[in-house]
Amino acid sequence: MRKDHLLVSLFLSTILCSAEQANAQSKSTAIAAIRQEEIKKDLFTLADDHFRGREAGTPDELKAAMWLAEQARKAGLEPAGDDGTYFQFYPLIRERVGDRSTVKIGNRTFDLWKDVIIWEPCFATVDAPIVFVTNPDHVDAETIKGKVVALQFTEQGQSDPRKVIPWRYVSFVVRDWALKLANKGAKAILFVSDDRAEQAWNRAIPDRIRGTYRIEGRPSRQYLNGIPIVWVKKEALDLVRQPNQTFQANVYGEAFTYPSVNVVAKVKGTDAKLANEYVLFSAHTDHDGVREVEPGKDSILNGADDNATACAALLAIGRAFHKQPAKRSALFIWHGAEERGLLGSYYFAEHPTVPAQSLVAVLNADMIGMNAPDSAGLLGITPPHLNSADLANIALAENAKGPKFKLDTAWDKATHFEGFYFRSDHLPYVRKNIPAIFFTTLTHPLYHTPADEAATINIEKLTKMTKWMYATGFSVANAPERPKIVEGFKLEK
Q1: Domain 99-251 is found in CATH 3.40.50.720
Q2: pLDDT over 70 for what percent of the chain?
């Protein structure tokens, strides 16, 4: 090698080493701003009964969003929502069964939400004979066309291991049989509890009273249109099976529009060019509100892990970026209505408050404070969920440097029965071909129960997850090139 070439090479190596050292020093300086006591304080505040479970489409969600926006302001984050505010409001469309709806079997009238559950809203008048079937797969269309098909909940054809959970068992049976029977000409579908379905009854009532939610441009989450799905308790089985039994129903639907909101804030980058690009940090504000899941016991589902943990983490990461900005800008979004079907993130993905092409990567967090202290999940690192090897490798490298979590990769596989990759706010961005990963410590027995309280959270683990997420985002925000999408990337569904 020529002497002048050697000198140039040494000079460039020195510059690169200096840049890496400066980046590491900046990261170290900022990470000190992520303080465990502040994370704990924010977590306990947001998961308090004061916010009544932060249910989407209620004043409680809006109250929590206002609190988050105020904390973002205090942390020095700039507003990045609509019209110079921290907020992006959008209309949440709720469709529910009207209380005027009636159901009668033979001479017996069933009281709505006490003796009978109507699964989803529709407009229908039904007066038809009942045909009771024991094997829905073997019934032919001529037998049931124009009639009400009655069947008892059954494990037949149910291979999903989650069926051991009564609520999921009921949901799977309705999902699998309602459309099949409707396609064969059924006028209505009448499910009768078995022992396992009976255990889900009290959980189902508040859920079905609420109905279904959507936003404009997103499909309805209802199974059927104009064909009632009705569920009665096990004690009605003999009545339903009587020969020549009849069914009468008048079902009414109601629709309401409520405001929901994304809270959006930013820390501007330091590089004149790269500051126009954003690393997006994502969490969701809402949970399941107030429900009588277990009569006589705590009825507020505070969602401490789901997802007050990640909301507190984003505030901490925002403070770190404010203390030491990166070259690229950092964008923080507390999405609304995630529990209603990722509606806030779908809305932002379709109506971003920054140019869509400026979104470099999405780092989403959902449930990051439970389970074994040395384990975690990172979803989006296993094909077909791996949409950016560049982004995944940065996250894996930062884990190796710092918290050194043992990663449970099973939940990221397309074959995992939970389908967890498709259940959080990174998904709408992935569908827009934006590099994305999903930080989580996975589900646990307190998931979606009133027992998911702040006192159950491992604050030390939550702090480590927060620092890992921050370090990953800081590295992405300072990288010379933005992470690339895997060529030919396509999800399995």
Answers
A1: no
A2: 94
